[in-house]
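Researcher: Re-running this chain for the archive, since the previous output was lost when a drive failed. Same request as before.
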Amino acid sequence: MDTSIFFSDHLTAVWAAVAAGISGVGTWLLGLRRISASTERARIKLSAESSASELAERTAFRATLMAELSAMRLQIKECEADRDALRERINAAEGQILVLKASIEIMERWVAYFRDRNSAQPPTALRDVKFDNAR
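Model: Regenerated structure tokens:
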């Protein structure tokens, strides 16, 4: 069989098959292009959404962190005020302790003086007594 006779008898069918093949390949390539563009748009949209949600999460975390830091700073200031008040109380107590120690020492000297006075020994003069303030 001669191919030229076959093509001349079936020329329309051959042209239709070739056109269908070319159209199919073109449609397939166009579909791939559209799918690629669609996936790229979806990727960009997903990236923007994740970026926005990540930004919101970071903002919320930062706000929470700043609130916690403010609360801690407030607690530190309160503790410093309490510490200063305690230091003042300690200093006042130490001052009272020194006064009490001096009073005890003076009382002991008076007791010793009156004991010496009530005994048969001659009394010692109070002006000769030296107080030790170094205690």
